[in-house]
């Protein structure tokens, strides 16, 4: 897949947005940032998504995360479209910036275009990419959907919770993990180390292999 991916540093681009010009690394400082693209303004799935992002914004902010949207339309189009977004999702206000990238130069660098989807002029269309970026400007998680598939904001929030949990402890989150569920201890941590690191205790699952690698704890 072309473009940046997990672990890569997002380039410090200067972008034009509905909030004026922004340097990406300045925006990423002191927390987490969710950057996400949408194929086009005034389209049905995108209108539902950006409204839901606005509705979830208070939850993201509780976790120290900011939002930054990307599109190939211009700022004037974005500002007009915001009225439709807010009308469709009553009670929400789109207070996060939306980047304008008519030439698709930024979207390509951020791995946010679908090489197999073209507009009437033959230009690559943006996909529904979402990257969660840390304060170190590196991509911690990446989700990519085609234009026809809307994202699930509950999953975005859950993924952010998981990233923040594992950034504090030597653990990983198992399948279908949710906040307050047990986590698994990293195989790199010995049982002796685990006893010191997790004084609340941990449970080791008995498996046919006899190996003690599946250890659950609460943090």
Give a quick summary of the entry:
One of its GO terms (molecular function) is thioredoxin-dependent peroxiredoxin activity. By secondary structure, the protein is an alpha+beta fold.
Q: What report would you give on this structure?
A:
- The chain is an alpha+beta fold and 219 residues long.
- It has two domains: 14-151, Glutaredoxin, CATH 3.40.30; 169-217, Antioxidant, Horf6, Chain A, domain 2 (2-Layer Sandwich).
- The chain is built from six helices and 13 strands.
- The protein has helices at 24-28, 44-62, 75-88, 105-109, 153-168, 191-197; strands at 14-17, 20-23, 32-37, 65-71, 98-100, 113-118, 124-126, 128-133, 139-145, 171-172, 183-185, 203-204, 215-217.
- The strands form three sheets. It has a seven-stranded mixed sheet with strand order 2-1-5-4-3-8-9. A four-stranded antiparallel sheet has the order 10-11-13-12, covered by helices on one side.
């Amino acid at each position: 897949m072309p473009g940046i991916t997990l672990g890569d540093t997002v380039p410090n681009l200067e972008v034009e947005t509905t909030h004026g010009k922004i340097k990406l690394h300045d925006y990423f400082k002191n927390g987490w940032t969710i950057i996400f693209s949408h194929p086009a303004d005034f389209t049905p799935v995108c209108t539902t998504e950006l409204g839901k992002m606005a509705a979830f914004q208070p939850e993201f902010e509780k976790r120290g995360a900011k939002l930054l949207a990307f599109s190939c339309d211009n700022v004037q189009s974005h500002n007009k479209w915001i009225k439709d977004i807010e009308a469709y999702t009553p009670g929400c206000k789109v207070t996060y910036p939306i980047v304008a990238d008519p030439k698709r130069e930024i979207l390509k660098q951020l791995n946010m275009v679908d090489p197999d989807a073209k507009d009437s002029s033959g230009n690559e269309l943006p996909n529904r990419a979402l990257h969660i970026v840390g304060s170190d400007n590196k991509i911690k998680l990446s989700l990519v959907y085609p234009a026809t598939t809307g994202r699930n904001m509950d999953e975005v929030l859950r993924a952010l919770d998981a990233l923040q949990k594992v950034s504090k402890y030597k653990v990983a989150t198992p399948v279908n993990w949710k906040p307050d569920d047990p986590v698994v201890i990293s195989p790199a941590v010995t049982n002796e180390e685990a006893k010191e690191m997790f004084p609340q205790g941990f449970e080791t699952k008995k498996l046919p292999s006899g190996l003690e690698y599946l250890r659950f704890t609460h943090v």
